[in-house]
Automatic annotation (TrEMBL), chain A:
GO cellular component: plasma membrane
Bilayer-crossing regions: 12-30, 36-55, 67-89, 119-137
Compartments in which it is found: Cell membrane
Keyword Oxidoreductase: no
Entry superkingdom: Bacteria
One Pfam family named in its UniProt record: MnhB
Record-given protein name: Na(+)/H(+) antiporter subunit B
Membrane topology: Multi-pass membrane protein
InterPro entries: CPA3_antiporter_subunitB (IPR050622), MnhB (IPR007182)
Homology family: Belongs to the CPA3 antiporters (TC 2.A.63) subunit B family.
The organism of origin for this protein: Salipaludibacillus neizhouensis
Keyword vocabulary terms for this entry: Cell membrane, Membrane, Transmembrane, Transmembrane helix
From TrEMBL, chain B:
Family as reported in the entry's similarity comment: Belongs to the CPA3 antiporters (TC 2.A.63) subunit D family.
Boundaries of every NADH:quinone oxidoreductase/Mrp antiporter transmembrane domain copy: 129-418
Subcellular location: Cell membrane; Membrane
Keyword Transport: yes
Transmembrane segments: 6-23, 35-53, 65-96, 108-127, 133-152, 164-184, 204-230, 242-269, 275-297, 309-332, 369-394, 406-432, 447-468
Predominant localisation class: membrane
Protein's UniProt name: Na+/H+ antiporter subunit D
GO biological process, one term: ATP synthesis coupled electron transport
Keyword Transmembrane helix in annotation: yes
Molecular function GO labels: antiporter activity; NADH dehydrogenase (ubiquinone) activity
Topology class, membrane: Multi-pass membrane protein
Keywords: Antiport, Cell membrane, Membrane, Transmembrane, Transmembrane helix, Transport
GO cellular component: plasma membrane
């Protein structure tokens, strides 16, 4: 019997966008207000898992052709390397710097070195969550 | 202040581990990077310790947040010595792993997790804050879960499940103890804790927390009666992994006990340190009974680990500079000798295909070098002068006699004798007698590459015995630094 997934597919297409954009909002909201790399990463992973659930593994693998274990390493490396930037200015490991910049369109923005660190965390969380869940899912078949 | 050197023994293996993940399918690249990283790590630890020896205790305030609010890393002489030892053990086991680890295991991230394990171990040595001790314990344990189960044989899966369960339980207990401690003192920084507990009224609650922490660390260090997980779980994994576990992991627990009971909980010594003394005696005795009863090379070594943790704790429990110096000397000796003994077990297993003593025999004829090297390490473990095991034990026994603790002295002497018995029994069964494997003589297994990482360890054992004088005076300095918490506290709160 062929099951009809029309409802699920339609809703997923819309909801995934909301989840993914909210996860990016959370990521940028981080370090000063609630949010950050970890929670943003979890939310993005949950959005992607929704995609995996409603469409099948193979389709999404074609869309997202990442090797998640390499992604984990990349994220870790980004986070670690931002830790070292304090050394350039003679400060201890993991020191963070911030300043305010005028950017076109966005106006005045606070740019910090905590952001790339958070990006590293974000990538690690997304990749680990997906790797764990997909490993369990593939085990089944 | 920028003392990045304090953090190098933590950062180097971390970066190396991350980079190694990228090359999981390229065996040669992995080996090159990991070999280089291991030597750089050892070198950086030596450099750090030299620095500490010259300039006194070094601290690093991560992220420029000052103590007691930020995360502090503190390198005193004891921590420095421990990172050197973990570097030595790390290099030796890595080079042994090159020759013995199966290709499949290499692909399943053996090298990255090996380095993450070292990250956790060195982090636990260098952290200046008891919560980060917990964090680095977790880093170390999670890597060890993966290494211990790697390969996935039925035996490994069964035994490592127990290992995981008991360690998760211990971690939960650790967290509870930390919550207790925080609610009592409002801080988790070692130096700050030491200050506040010294000022506080010594109520029974502090004893409760002290004993809770002791239980947690005793579980990791395999003290009586919480050692039961160790012998079987160290039996399953490949030799290189068992060797680094046997050499390093229990010593991290011992280190934590030393740190907490020389810095923080030192105001009710009558109670806490007599509990530790009792545990020391019981651990020694029960451990050696296990070693005497078993007929398997690796099982005997596992029980020897337990028994010899008892010696180290005994030095702490006596709580005089001389006894603690002896214990520190003993830790250094034990980490080197235990690692090499596990590696011998790996070599004989490679030759004979078994670790059962009754099935081996006559190896001395075909492999004389292996036999005599083993003999050196074996009698060093038993504490025969002039090898390294003797001096630490001697100092502790003298200190015990000075204190009038005759029972523990008697037990430790008896255990020394039984250690000698069990090691010589291995020697007789494995190396004497008639070869039990046919065609042994015509085409001996090439063991020289396997012996390469062991020979430096054996040489170190001899060197520690021959140059016991300077090394012991170094241990004495460490002991005096440990017994004078004000040095540690002042280095953390400089201003």
């Amino acid at each position: 019997m062929k099951t009809n997934y029309l409802m699920l597919h339609t809703i997923t297409r819309i909801v995934t966008f909301i989840i993914l954009s909210f996860s990016i909002y959370l990521f940028f909201a981080g370090h000063n207000s609630p949010g950050g790399g970890f929670i943003g990463g979890l939310m993005m992973a949950s959005g992607l898992i929704l995609l995996y659930l409603s469409f099948d593994l193979k389709t999404i693998k074609r869309v997202l052709p990442f090797d998640y274990s390499t992604l984990i390493a990349t994220g870790l490396l980004i986070a670690l390397l931002t830790g070292f930037n304090g050394l350039l200015f003679g400060d201890p490991f993991l020191t963070q710097y911030f300043d305010y910049f005028e950017l076109p369109i966005l106006g005045e923005v606070e740019l910090t070195t905590a952001l790339p660190f958070d990006l590293g965390v974000f990538i690690v969380v997304v990749a680990i969550t997906l790797l764990i869940i997909l490993t369990i899912a593939e085990d089944d078949s | 202040m920028n003392n990045i050197v304090v953090l190098l023994p933590v950062l180097i293996p971390f970066v190396a581990g991350v980079i190694l993940i990228f090359f999981k399918n390229f065996s040669t690249i992995q080996r090159t990077i990991s070999g280089l990283a291991a030597f750089i790590l050892l070198f950086s630890s030596v450099f750090l310790t030299y620095h500490v020896y010259q300039d006194g205790i070094l601290t690093l305030e991560a992220g420029n947040w000052s103590a007691p609010f930020g995360i502090i890393f503190v390198a005193d002489l004891f921590a420095g010595l421990m990172t050197i030892l973990s570097g030595i053990v790390g290099v030796a086991c890595l080079f042994f792993a090159y020759k013995t680890i199966h290709k499949d295991r290499e692909k399943f991230y053996f090298y990255p997790f090996y380095f993450f394990l070292l990250t956790g171990v060195n982090g636990a040595f260098l952290t200046g804050d008891i919560f980060n001790l917990f964090v680095f314990f977790e880093v170390m344990l999670i890597s060890s879960y993966i290494l211990i189960v790697m390969g996935g044989t039925k035996y490994q899966l069964r035994e490592s499940f127990k290992y995981v369960v008991i360690n998760i339980f211990a971690s939960a207990l650790f967290l509870i103890a930390l919550a207790f401690l925080y609610s009592l003192t409002g801080t988790l920084n070692f130096a700050h804790l030491a200050q506040r507990i010294a000022e506080a009224e010594q109520t029974g609650v502090f004893n409760v927390v002290a004993i809770l922490l002791l239980i947690v660390f005793a579980m990791k260090a395999a003290l009586f009666p919480l050692y039961f997980w160790l012998p079987n779980s160290y039996y399953g994994p490949p030799t290189a992994i068992a060797a680094i576990f046997g050499g390093l992991l229990t010593k991290v627990g011992v280190y934590a006990i030393f740190r907490v009971f020389t810095l923080v909980f030192i105001h009710n010594i009558d109670f806490t340190h007599s509990v530790i003394l009792f545990l020391a005696g019981a651990t020694m005795f029960v451990g050696i009974l296990g070693a005497v009863a078993k007929f398997d090379f690796r099982h005997i070594l596992s029980y020897q680990i337990i028994s010899h943790v008892g010696y180290m704790i005994m030095g702490l429990a006596l709580f005089t500079p001389y006894a603690i110096a002896g214990a520190i000397f003993y830790i250094a000796h034990d980490m080197i000798v235990k690692t090499s003994l596990f590696l011998y077990a790996g070599v004989t297993q490679k030759i004979t295909g078994t670790t059962d003593l009754t099935k081996m025999g006559g190896l001395l004829r075909t492999y004389p070098l292996l036999g005599w090297l083993f003999f050196i390490s074996a009698i060093a473990l038993a504490g025969i002068p002039p090898l390294s095991g003797f001096f630490g034990k001697f100092a502790m026994i003298v200190a015990g006699l000075d204190q009038g603790q005759y029972i523990i002295v008697f037990i430790s002497l008896l255990v020394g004798l039984l250690t000698l018995y069990s090691m010589i029994r291995i020697f007789i069964y494995v190396f004497w007698g008639e070869p039990k494997i046919e065609n042994d003589k015509d085409n001996p297994v090439k063991i020289m590459p396997l012996l390469l990482p062991i020979i430096p360890l054996a040489a170190l054992t001899i060197a520690m015995g021959v140059f016991a004088e300077p090394i012991f005076s170094f241990s004495m300095e460490i002991a005096e630094q440990l017994l004078d918490p004000s040095q540690y506290i002042e280095s953390v709160f400089k201003e």
